[in-house]
Specification:
CATH architecture: 2-Layer Sandwich
CATH topology: Transcription Regulator spoIIAA
Bound molecules: zinc ion
Radius of gyration: 16 Å
Number of domains: 1
Largest sheet: 5 strands, mixed
CATH superfamily: STAS domain
Strand order of the largest sheet: 1-2-3-4-5
Protein backbone atom coordinates (compact mmCIF):
# COMPACT_ATOMS: atom_id res chain seq x y z
CA UNK A 1 0.00 0.00 0.00
CA UNK A 2 1.08 3.54 -0.72
CA UNK A 3 2.39 5.12 2.49
CA UNK A 4 1.78 8.72 1.45
CA UNK A 5 -1.89 8.40 0.56
CA UNK A 6 -3.16 10.08 -2.56
CA UNK A 7 -1.22 12.13 -5.13
CA UNK A 8 -3.44 14.46 -7.16
CA UNK A 9 -2.81 16.46 -10.27
CA UNK A 10 -5.11 18.77 -12.26
CA UNK A 11 -4.39 20.64 -15.44
CA UNK A 12 -6.35 22.54 -18.04
CA UNK A 13 -6.19 21.23 -21.63
CA UNK A 14 -8.32 23.57 -23.73
CA UNK A 15 -11.81 23.37 -22.24
CA UNK A 16 -11.11 20.09 -20.50
CA UNK A 17 -9.88 19.71 -16.93
CA UNK A 18 -7.64 16.64 -16.78
CA UNK A 19 -7.26 15.14 -13.32
CA UNK A 20 -5.00 12.27 -12.32
CA UNK A 21 -5.29 10.41 -9.00
CA UNK A 22 -2.52 8.06 -7.85
CA UNK A 23 -2.01 5.95 -4.76
CA UNK A 24 -4.56 5.27 -2.05
CA UNK A 25 -7.98 6.91 -1.71
CA UNK A 26 -8.62 6.97 2.03
CA UNK A 27 -9.10 9.30 5.01
CA UNK A 28 -5.63 10.85 4.68
CA UNK A 29 -6.59 13.09 1.77
CA UNK A 30 -9.57 15.49 1.61
CA UNK A 31 -10.73 14.63 -1.90
CA UNK A 32 -14.05 16.41 -1.47
CA UNK A 33 -12.42 19.66 -0.32
CA UNK A 34 -9.78 19.47 -3.04
CA UNK A 35 -12.17 18.64 -5.87
CA UNK A 36 -15.29 20.66 -5.18
CA UNK A 37 -14.36 23.55 -7.49
CA UNK A 38 -12.76 21.66 -10.40
CA UNK A 39 -14.28 23.13 -13.57
CA UNK A 40 -16.14 20.85 -15.98
CA UNK A 41 -15.94 19.05 -18.33
CA UNK A 42 -13.70 16.71 -16.37
CA UNK A 43 -11.59 13.72 -17.38
CA UNK A 44 -10.31 11.73 -14.42
CA UNK A 45 -7.38 9.32 -14.88
CA UNK A 46 -7.68 6.51 -12.31
CA UNK A 47 -4.90 4.31 -13.69
CA UNK A 48 -2.67 4.92 -10.69
CA UNK A 49 -5.21 4.20 -7.94
CA UNK A 50 -3.88 1.18 -6.07
CA UNK A 51 -6.23 1.05 -3.12
CA UNK A 52 -9.51 2.47 -1.82
CA UNK A 53 -11.02 1.82 1.61
CA UNK A 54 -14.48 2.55 3.00
CA UNK A 55 -13.56 6.12 4.07
CA UNK A 56 -12.12 6.70 0.60
CA UNK A 57 -15.21 5.23 -0.98
CA UNK A 58 -17.57 7.67 0.72
CA UNK A 59 -15.23 10.54 -0.26
CA UNK A 60 -15.18 9.34 -3.87
CA UNK A 61 -18.98 9.00 -4.07
CA UNK A 62 -19.42 12.52 -2.67
CA UNK A 63 -16.67 13.98 -4.90
CA UNK A 64 -18.10 12.37 -8.05
CA UNK A 65 -21.69 13.19 -7.11
CA UNK A 66 -20.78 16.89 -6.92
CA UNK A 67 -18.67 16.79 -10.07
CA UNK A 68 -21.45 15.35 -12.26
CA UNK A 69 -23.81 18.15 -11.21
CA UNK A 70 -21.33 20.66 -12.74
CA UNK A 71 -20.99 18.92 -16.12
CA UNK A 72 -19.79 15.81 -17.98
CA UNK A 73 -17.26 13.54 -16.23
CA UNK A 74 -15.25 10.86 -18.04
CA UNK A 75 -13.32 8.20 -16.11
CA UNK A 76 -10.17 6.90 -17.80
CA UNK A 77 -7.77 3.97 -17.33
CA UNK A 78 -9.83 2.87 -14.32
CA UNK A 79 -7.69 0.54 -12.22
CA UNK A 80 -8.91 -2.79 -10.88
CA UNK A 81 -9.83 -1.49 -7.37
CA UNK A 82 -11.93 1.29 -8.95
CA UNK A 83 -13.67 -1.00 -11.47
CA UNK A 84 -14.48 -3.41 -8.64
CA UNK A 85 -15.97 -0.50 -6.68
CA UNK A 86 -18.00 0.72 -9.69
CA UNK A 87 -19.44 -2.75 -10.11
CA UNK A 88 -20.39 -3.13 -6.45
CA UNK A 89 -21.66 0.38 -5.64
CA UNK A 90 -23.99 2.03 -8.16
CA UNK A 91 -23.35 5.53 -6.78
CA UNK A 92 -19.59 5.13 -7.29
CA UNK A 93 -20.01 5.65 -11.03
CA UNK A 94 -23.48 7.24 -11.29
CA UNK A 95 -23.71 10.03 -13.84
CA UNK A 96 -20.16 9.61 -15.14
CA UNK A 97 -18.99 7.86 -18.30
CA UNK A 98 -16.41 5.10 -18.02
CA UNK A 99 -14.12 5.53 -21.02
CA UNK A 100 -11.51 2.81 -20.37
CA UNK A 101 -10.64 0.22 -17.76
CA UNK A 102 -7.72 -1.98 -16.78
CA UNK A 103 -8.05 -5.71 -16.19
CA UNK A 104 -5.70 -8.48 -15.08
CA UNK A 105 -5.15 -11.05 -17.79
CA UNK A 106 -3.13 -14.22 -17.79
CA UNK A 107 -1.87 -16.72 -20.33
CA UNK A 108 -2.85 -20.37 -19.97
CA UNK A 109 0.17 -21.33 -22.06
CA UNK A 110 3.09 -19.71 -20.24
CA UNK A 111 1.56 -18.20 -17.09
CA UNK A 112 2.40 -14.61 -18.04
CA UNK A 113 0.30 -12.03 -16.15
CA UNK A 114 -0.41 -8.66 -17.64
CA UNK A 115 -2.64 -5.63 -17.07
CA UNK A 116 -4.66 -5.00 -20.21
CA UNK A 117 -6.33 -1.71 -21.05
CA UNK A 118 -9.83 -1.94 -22.56
CA UNK A 119 -11.81 0.84 -24.24
CA UNK A 120 -15.43 0.45 -23.15
CA UNK A 121 -16.99 1.54 -26.46
CA UNK A 122 -14.63 -0.48 -28.66
CA UNK A 123 -13.50 -3.52 -26.70
CA UNK A 124 -16.53 -4.26 -24.54
CA UNK A 125 -19.34 -4.44 -27.08
CA UNK A 126 -19.31 -8.12 -28.04
CA UNK A 127 -21.84 -10.25 -26.17
CA UNK A 128 -21.64 -13.88 -25.21
CA UNK A 129 -24.64 -16.17 -25.96
CA UNK A 130 -25.90 -15.61 -22.39
CA UNK A 131 -26.20 -11.86 -23.07
CA UNK A 132 -23.26 -10.80 -20.91
CA UNK A 133 -20.53 -8.59 -22.33
CA UNK A 134 -17.48 -10.59 -23.37
CA UNK A 135 -13.96 -9.54 -22.45
CA UNK A 136 -11.78 -9.88 -25.55
CA UNK A 137 -8.74 -12.16 -25.57
CA UNK A 138 -5.33 -10.75 -26.45
CA UNK A 139 -2.30 -12.39 -28.04
CA UNK A 140 0.38 -13.30 -25.51
CA UNK A 141 3.59 -11.40 -26.32
CA UNK A 142 5.61 -14.06 -24.52
CA UNK A 143 4.56 -17.34 -26.18
CA UNK A 144 2.07 -16.36 -28.89
CA UNK A 145 -0.75 -18.04 -26.98
CA UNK A 146 -3.91 -16.42 -25.68
CA UNK A 147 -4.11 -13.91 -22.83
CA UNK A 148 -7.52 -14.07 -21.21
CA UNK A 149 -9.29 -12.28 -18.37
CA UNK A 150 -8.55 -14.02 -15.08
CA UNK A 151 -11.76 -13.17 -13.20
CA UNK A 152 -15.54 -13.30 -13.63
CA UNK A 153 -16.36 -11.01 -16.54
CA UNK A 154 -20.05 -10.52 -15.72
CA UNK A 155 -19.22 -9.55 -12.13
CA UNK A 156 -16.27 -7.32 -13.10
CA UNK A 157 -18.29 -5.53 -15.78
CA UNK A 158 -21.45 -5.06 -13.71
CA UNK A 159 -20.69 -1.29 -13.73
CA UNK A 160 -21.80 -1.20 -17.38
CA UNK A 161 -25.35 -1.45 -16.02
CA UNK A 162 -24.67 1.21 -13.33
CA UNK A 163 -23.52 4.18 -15.43
ZN1 LIG B 1 1.93 -16.94 -23.00
Amino acid sequence: MNASGLAVDARQVGDLTEVALRGAIDERFDLIGWGHELPSPLAIDLGGVEFINSAGMSQWVHFLGEAVTRGPVRLRHCSEPMVTLFSMVTDAVGGATVESIQAHYDCAGCGREQVVELMVEQDLVERAPDGNVKMPDRPCPECGGVLGFAGHADRYLAFLRNE
